[in-house]
Amino acid sequence: MRPAIPALIVTALLAAPVFAKLPPPSDEAKAKAAEAAAKSGWTDKVAAYKLCRAMDHVTEVYRRNAKAAGKEAPAPVETPPCTDPGPFTPPPLEASGAHSPPATATAPPSSNATAAQQQGQPKK
What we know:
Helices cover 50% and strands 0% of the residues. It is mainly α. The chain is flat.
């Protein structure tokens, strides 16, 4: 029973960093994550487009081969046309918040007024 207590203490000390909180991601990391998410979504659209084109091609070949063999192919099922997603365009930087200031400025940065005067208080 005695060897179990030090083992539990060591385990607890080693497990403590697991529960540590990570710092929030930087603006650059957020921008990279937004671009990665946009690229992933675009890749999914491209894959769906290629799959749609492949299915259309297989259907066309099947119907052509059935007609050549003298068999009648069933009527085609109406499906929406394949839409090409186009080239990848990364999201604009402002949409990701990478270059946005934390708050709107209330005065121009080159003002000669003191902070007290800008807030409407008399100059000391």
